[in-house]
Amino acid sequence: TTKVGYAGEDVPASIVDSFVGFQKIGEQTNHILPNDLPRHDDIPLKGFNHEGLVADWDVLEIIWEYSIKNNLFVDTKEHPCLLSERSFSPTAQRHKFCEIWFEKYDVPALFISKDAVLSCFAAGRTTGLVADVGAELATVTPVSDGWAEQKGIIKSLVAGNMVNKYLQHIIEKRGQKIPPQHMSSREKALATISSSSSNCDEHKMDTTELEANGDEGEEDLLTYREYRLQKVVSDIKEGMGRVSDTPVDKSDPRFANMPRLPYELPDGTQVQLGSERFEAPELLLNTAPLTEAVGAGAP
Length: 299
Known about the structure:
Layout: E1 2-4, E2 14-16, E3 19-25, E4 28-32, E5 44-47, E6 49-50, E7 53-54, H1 57-72, E8 81-85, H2 91-103, E9 110-114, H3 115-122, E10 128-133, E11 138-144, E12 147-148, E13 154-156, H4 160-173, H5 185-196, H6 207-210, E14 222-223, H7 224-240, H8 253-256, E15 261-264, E16 270-273, H9 276-279, H10 288-294
Parallel strand pairs: 8-9
Antiparallel strand pairs: 1-2, 3-4, 3-5, 5-14, 6-7, 10-11, 11-12, 11-13, 15-16
Helix pairs in contact: 4-7
Pfam families: Actin
InterPro entries: Actin (IPR004000), ATPase_NBD (IPR043129)
Family: Belongs to the actin family.
């Protein structure tokens, strides 16, 4: 997500998903942010980052432009700007930030700070160890006296999106399909038929979805349907997911006999979650279940 706001306020003025939809009408291609997208499954969406770094500057500028004009309602010529960046961002990316904000938005002043340092300052400290689990990347950054120690940064691709994919795999392995938020009545009926006639092959995990993209600087396009499906799975994770105080062991009676809690899906059906609430977040601490699911090539 991209967060924008005003200095001195406790929460951002706007939080925008970091995707842009591309809708072609005749010879013209319109750029639409997810919140304004019409409900068409085949509209492609694209994000601007790849493994924490900017991969598509055009998409990033579209999101900035939308946030400034539709959420902040400010004249950038009259306001200094603070940008946060990943602690491992290269110097070339900082130069590009400066070029855009000084030449396009004509800001009077610009300060770019490491996100880990800002997290420490927000907690009232200048020294600390900052763990940041994002969608694509999880990082641990040591901060000393307001300085992010580059050599001590640890990165992992096992992050929010990976947990979402694994949680979806666990639920669908039990024979229950997860519909996207905008599913129509006809799609609900088709999903019910598909679910009732599913077999073991349908529950096999798609390894290509969990593997990192091999082309640096590129990111696979999502469809609107896939985007809304990810939102549902993410809501299940955030609302019901828990991190266990002890390692998750399926043979442990505490997990095997755990009471199941209901979650209502967009189509009105319910999914019952027991130990699954702990199994998916456990990936952040133990990747063995992921290795079993997608093979030895898992990150």
